[in-house]
Each structure stands twice: as C-alpha cells, then as structure tokens.
Amino acid sequence: MTIRAFLLPVPAALLCLATAARAQDSARAQDSARARNSVRAEHGAARDSVRTRDPVRAQRAGIAEDSARATSAAGAQDSGRATVARGAHAYADVAGRIMEAALADSSAYARMVRLVDRFGNRPVGSARLEAAIDWIIESMRADGLANVRGEPVRVPHWERGSESAELVAPRRARLHMLGLGRSVGTRAKGITAPVLVVGSFDELARRAAEARGKIVLFDVPFATDRNPFDVYDDVVRYRVDGASAAARVGAVAALVRSVASYSIQSPHTGTMRYDSTTRRIPTAALSVEDAELIHRLSDAGARVVVRLRMGARMLADATSRNVVAELPGRERPDEVVVVGGHIDSWDVGEGAMDDAGGAVASWQAVRLLRRLGLTPRRTVRVVLWTNEEMGGRGGLAYRDRHAAELDRHVLAVETDNGVFAPRGFAFAGSDAAASVLRQVAALLDRVGPVTVERSAESPDADLEPLVDSHVPAIGLRVDPSRYFWFHHSEADTPDKLDPAEMARCVAALAVLTYVVADLPEPLPRLARATR
Length: 531
What we know:
Blueprint: E1 3-7, H1 18-29, H2 38-44, H3 55-59, H4 73-89, H5 92-103, H6 107-119, H7 127-142, E2 146-159, E3 163-169, E4 173-175, E5 177-179, E6 191-198, H8 201-206, H9 208-211, E7 215-218, H10 228-248, E8 253-257, E9 283-286, H11 288-299, E10 305-310, E11 313-327, E12 332-342, H12 352-371, E13 378-385, H13 393-401, E14 409-414, E15 422-428, H14 431-441, E16 451-454, H15 464-468, E17 473-478, H16 483-486, H17 499-518, E18 526-530
Parallel strand pairs: 6-7, 7-8, 8-9, 12-13, 12-14, 14-17, 15-16
Antiparallel strand pairs: 1-18, 2-11, 3-4, 3-10, 5-9, 6-10, 11-13, 15-17
Helix pairs in contact: 1-2, 4-14, 5-17, 6-12, 12-17
C-alpha cells in the first residue's frame, strides 16, 4: 500500500461579504485611541459569513466582493492569489501594535535570565528541571494564562558522572572532553589504548583491520562555507552512530571531534545511540583543537595513546512534564494554534540558547497578546516540551495525549535554533497554507526581512510527531552564524543572546500566532489517501 499527499478541495466561489467590508472601513477610520479594538471591528462581521476551506480567500472576505461572483474554482483561485496581499493587510494595524509593544519590552530576556540563573541547566531526570517547571507553572498562572498545567512524560535518565581524557603518548596532556548522552561508562581505572584517526565511516571500513583494540577518533571538520544547520546534518551522524560503527570493527572506545563551527577548547556534547547488534563501548566528544592535535601527531607517524575515564550510567526512567498554558479563543476555543520550545537542556552550561530562549520567547509572545487585550478566534496554546535533547519523548507524549484534538490543531510553531536575529520561517504543510503564511510574514516589516521557506520534513524536533499526524508546522529561523559556537557546551549562557534580538523573535512569534489564530478559516491541510 502506498500513500500520497493531496490538497483538500477548495470551494468554487465565495459568497458576498459586504458587511465585512463595511466593518473593515469603519475600523480603519477609528483614531489611535480606539486602535486596541480595531482587529475585532475589522473581522467581526465576517463571523456571520459562510465558511470556506480556503483561508487565502477567507482572509480577504469583505475586501473584494468581485471574488464572490467567481464562476469556477480556477477563476476564484486566480483571483485569490491576486488579492491575498490586501487580505493580509487587514491585520496590518494590529500587527503594528504587537510589534511596537514587543520591541519596546525586554522582559522576555529578563525572564530567560531569571530562569537559567536560578535553576541552571535542566537535564531530564534531574531535580533542577522539575524545579524549573514548577516555577514556570507558577509564573504562568501569575501571568493570568488559563488552563496552566504540567502533563506527565516518562523520560530517560542519564548521568554523566566524573570523566576525563588524557593524552598519554607521545607526550602527556589533559584533553578537553565531554561524554555523549546515553554512553556507557568505563571501568574505574579507565581505558588506555592507541588511537586510530579516521575522517569518515568509509575510511573506517577500509581500515577495519587496524581498529581492533584501539580507540577510534572520528575527526570530521565542520565546514564553514555553507549554512551551519545543513553542515550539522551532515556531520552529526558521527556523534550519533560513531560508537556502534567503531564497535563493529573491534574498537574499545570511540571519540568524535565536537560538532562545532568554532572552538576555544570547548567540547560539545549531544546524544548518541547504540545499535542493538553491537557491543556498547564508551564514547565522548573532544574539543576541535584536541581532535586536530591527535590527528596531526598521527599523521606525523607518532603512536598516539589516550586514557579515557567515564562514570556515565543510565538509570531507570523518570517522570517529567510538558508545560501547557492557554489564551482561550473567543469564538472557536476548540481550535488550537500551538507555540513553544523545549524546556530541558544538556547538563553543561545553562541551556540559555538551547532552548530557554525559544521556550521563554514563545511564552512571552502569548503573554504579550493577553496584555494587549488581543483574544483571537482560536485558542493559542503554549507548550514547553520536555526531553527534546534525549529522544523527543515530550513531543510524542503531547501528540498521544492530544490525539483526539489534532484535527483541530491549525498550526504548530516551535523555536529551537536560538533567539538570534529572526530571518524567517520553515514550513511543513500545503501550498495554499504556505501562501497565507507568506502574507502574514510580509506584515513583519519592523522585525526585518522575513521569508517563509518550504520544508520537506518537520522544521523542528518536537513538531515531528505532529507533522506525522498532518498538523501544519512551522519553525522560526534566525541568523545561524553563531549557534554552533555554543551549542551543547559550557558556553551556552545568557550573555550569548541579545535582548533586542530576542524581542524581535517575540514580535515575530506573537504576530504569527495571533493572525493565524484569528483568520476566519483555518489553514488548509495536506491530507493523505491510500490506494
């Protein structure tokens, strides 16, 4: 059985909405003292209209009466494309209000700092994470958000323990290392063995006979001439699968050059996985400088020996929580726009960039809408997922708990690439929905040039279960140049983020979520059929 995607059918024509046009004209004539209520005036009359499945045309309802007279689906669709910009413009005033308020407010940055400085890093299974979640829930209730709760999630629990790596020959030197998440530990006295340096899995296969009894080092550089996130996708596989590949050829441990675009002797951790068919061997990341040192010594003909000690261990699964809070919709509260980030982090640094910044920016976007008195048609739901870093069980648990509601999830938004200067969005969904979202992005003139690019897969990890369930999903994309300098390292601290850039991210998220939640009709979806 094969599965194919197709776009839901679009009605042939729209009914005339003259009352909506009059409401919009009246709203535009109001002075600035009444601007707080302009969005409801512009769209209030449209609530009585006949519903259409195409939000592009629904968005311009009451603006172009001629489209109601379209006599064919093709004709109506062409007309919709010609006038969609005017439909998005209906939200220009309220988008301006949101951006003005967001850009004048540094409370998002201040709250992020308060979170990470008070609780530190937040690995799953830790008391620190659960204390942070308690504080967030209490703060969301104080903000006046509705239906605030923690939804339980069973999560893996890995502890790093004490660890070290040392160059034993041809000279002695301390190596800068971090064990990889899920790795097993070594014996108490550690593992001391010669090092085999390889630059790819193919090279390891060619040199398999040399690997037995050795520590394999994967020294794979992070290219700097392409988008860093594309490079990350290429090189992270050595961190994730390197240990099992080394174990298959008889290695006793595996090391990987840190997946980082810049380094000052700063190792970067991250998750790994074991192949169930191979022996589990310890694995760790070295700083870029130390990986290159070992490679140079090896190329010079030296016999390189390293001692690795790791106290890492997996414990029994623990219980954590996804944090959920809502701004209930005024008209269709059972339809939902989700916006969020993940609240867990690695056990190094403070997890400010990854992803306290994204989580707090999403939370603050909804808090801002409430403060401005903006209640959209649909519910806006903040979700701060747990366990993104160690396998994504928070995203899976949210999908499973809300399975009966997913048909009414209009859009899911995540921010998990740092809250640097916003550049645009990556969207997984239908062509028609992407057209609507591009018009929404055009409203963000005060945030900067913002694009909407199509994504063939889930734009962010916690959204993947929702994308698999056909929920349209979008991820905020920011300036990527510095992210992998600090990612998963001790350097992930608040000083790496800029309050003004974070405020721009809040503005982008608030406008996007408000407009999509207030559109007369939901975004059209991709559906699946079997044959």
